[in-house]
Design a protein that fits this description.
The complex is a heterodimer.
Chain A lengths: L2 E12 L1 E13 L4 E5 L6 H8 L7 E6 L2 E2 H6 L3 E4 L11 H12 L9 H7 L15 H15 L3 E5 L7 H18 L2 E6 L2 H7 L2 E6 L4 E7 L11 H21 L2
Parallel strand pairs in A: 3-8, 3-9, 6-7, 7-8
Antiparallel strand pairs in A: 1-2, 1-4, 4-5, 9-10
Chain B lengths: L4 E3 L3 H25 L9 H10 L1 H35 L4 H13 L2 H12 L4 H24 L3 H9 L4 H37 L6 H10 L3 H29 L7 E3 L1
Antiparallel strand pairs in B: 1-2
Classes of the chains: A alpha/beta, B mainly alpha.
């Protein structure tokens, strides 16, 4: 799956024009883990929503293997995971997954069964529980199981674990990394957390705010698992931090 | 691990409500006894209850008629609200026009229409059911349409990312989301339905609690009138409780239906 973004700009109109993204040009190869990092309001979530065809760009185009994002959604090539686990509260764990399967199976024949997906995220014992009986971490695991079922070549993830406590978040990120290394989809991961970005991604896009632009594009060539005490990790951390601080200073005049 | 979930137990609050009602009646009884209020102005609760029990069959027949009209009107008004809300959500282009019409119906004084309906359709139950349905339709429509429109944006994004059609989003997301709103609508409209049936009966009826109240008022037979009022209040309370009971079982996922320890 080759993804290319050409001359992409987006402006929100709500009484007045608010430019969110300006002239984004990027290409991605399949199986890459891309982290999108930057301050609030820098357009990284907007880019993800444009890629998922949830909004239509004011200018530019996104290609998935030569066809546009609308066609990619129709073909079931995009799996979406947001900060909210977005579970149907009136359906139990298994039924939530059954519904996801009903919508996505015909588009991308799933290679995983519901029980396999539940086992992968450690929710087998909770299959008959309702979402309101699950902790935040378990709810997000269920949302991840839904993504796994879809078996899409592109995963768009908008700060999926941001609302969780640090320990749960770390555990889930490690689990996600293991699953990604098996399925190898192209992952686009929006985050505010530089450590998380370096631990996970093999490409980091740093955004500058208003309008959102790509301020830096880093390739991370470090083997997994990555640790904060590695010199390369620290070097990258300082670089990204410096860029974000400079852009922040420039933005505030 | 899953958090512990326990159901709330409303029994204590029910007992508190019963105690308050009992205290109210005791004070009422005492005031009537001390002030020697004439029975044609304010009868004592004991007098009202004895009237009620001495004419049990009479009141049972009247209650059956009024409750039948109220429940039939409620069912028709509520179902019309659900159907129209569904149409407006599926075809949003129609919303402005239909809502204007619905507000027009809501703003029409039904007290003025009720005698006309009686004139046109007779003293039977049919005009009462129409009035009750007209009274309950608008709150049902507004509540259910709100429920269908206020879906979780994250869930809406998810369904769109699945390329779900408008009908699929309605069936799997909007309709179930609106169920709690439907129960809120029922809790608002059930007492309204009773009022609608009684007011419609005042304008001319061959039976029912409204007819009993009107005749009792004309003869200044206040114990008879208050007995009918007691039945209506009791029926309204029972209806509300029944809806709440059903709501607790159907809408089990709502935060007010569960408490987290």
């Amino acid at each position: 799956m080759r993804i290319s973004i050409e001359s992409l700009s987006h402006t929100f109109y709500n009484g007045q024009a608010t430019p969110a993204l300006q002239n984004i040009n990027l290409t991605f190869e399949s199986g890459k883990f891309v982290a999108l990092i930057g301050p609030s309001g820098c357009g990284k979530s907007t880019l993800l929503r444009l890629m998922a065809n949830l909004i239509t760009p004011t200018q530019g185009i996104i290609h998935y293997n030569g066809h546009d994002s609308r066609q990619a959604v129709l073909d079931g090539e995009i799996a979406w995971l947001s900060q909210s686990p977005a579970l149907l509260p009136w359906l139990n764990v298994e039924k939530n997954l059954e519904l996801a399967q009903r919508f996505t199976e015909t588009k991308s024949p799933s290679r995983l069964s519901i029980s396999d997906a539940l086992a992968l995220v450690g929710l087998t014992a909770a299959s008959h529980q309702y979402p309101f009986t699950l902790s935040g971490g378990m709810q997000q695991r269920l949302a991840l199981a839904r993504v796994l079922l879809q078996h899409a070549p592109v995963w768009l993830m908008d700060e999926p674990f941001a609302a969780l406590d640090e320990l749960t978040r770390e555990k889930l990120t490690e689990e996600l990394l293991q699953i990604w290394q098996v399925q190898m989809p192209a992952v686009f991961w929006v985050t505010h957390n530089i450590y998380e970005a370096i631990k996970l991604a093999d490409r980091i896009l740093v955004f500058s705010p208003q309008p959102g632009r790509i301020a830096a594009d880093f390739s991370v060539e470090m083997p997994y698992p990555r640790h904060e005490n590695q010199p390369q990790f620290q070097g990258l951390l300082s670089n990204i931090r410096l860029i974000l601080q400079q852009k922040e200073l420039k933005h505030h005049g | 691990m899953a958090e512990i979930i326990t159901r709330t137990k409303p029994k204590r609050s029910l007992w508190i409500a019963i105690c308050i009602i009992l205290i109210f009646f005791i004070i009422w009884e005492a005031v009537v006894a001390i002030m020697k209020t004439p029975v044609y102005l304010l009868p004592a609760p004991s007098k009202i209850l004895s009237t009620l029990f001495n004419n049990g069959t009479f009141y049972l027949r009247a209650t059956t008629i009024t409750l039948g009209e109220a429940l039939a009107g409620l069912a028709i008004g509520f179902l019309a609200g659900v159907l129209l809300a569904s149409v407006l959500v599926l075809l949003p282009g129609l919303e402005d026009g239909i809502m204007t019409l619905a507000i027009f119906i809501k703003s029409t004084p039904l007290v003025a229409i009720a005698p006309l309906l009686t004139l046109w359709l007779g003293f039977g139950v049919f005009p009462k059911i129409i009035i009750t349905a007209l009274l309950t339709f608008f709150p049902a429509l507004v509540n259910i349409i709100s429920g269908m429109q206020r879906v979780d944006p994250a869930l809406l994004d998810l369904f769109r990312s699945w390329n779900a059609s408008r009908w699929e989003i309605f069936r799997y997301l909007r309709a179930p989301t609106a169920v709690p709103y439907g129960f809120t609508a029922l809790k608002i409209t059930a007492p309204l339905a009773l009022i609608g049936a009684v007011v419609a009966e005042w304008t001319g009826a061959s039976g029912g609690l409204g007819r009993v109240m009107w005749l009792a008022y004309s003869n200044l037979n206040l114990p008879f009138m208050f007995a009918a009022i007691f039945i209506l209040a009791f029926a309204g309370m029972v209806l509300y409780r029944l809806i709440t009971w059903l709501e607790n079982r159907v809408v089990f996922w709502q935060p007010n239906q569960i408490s987290q320890d």
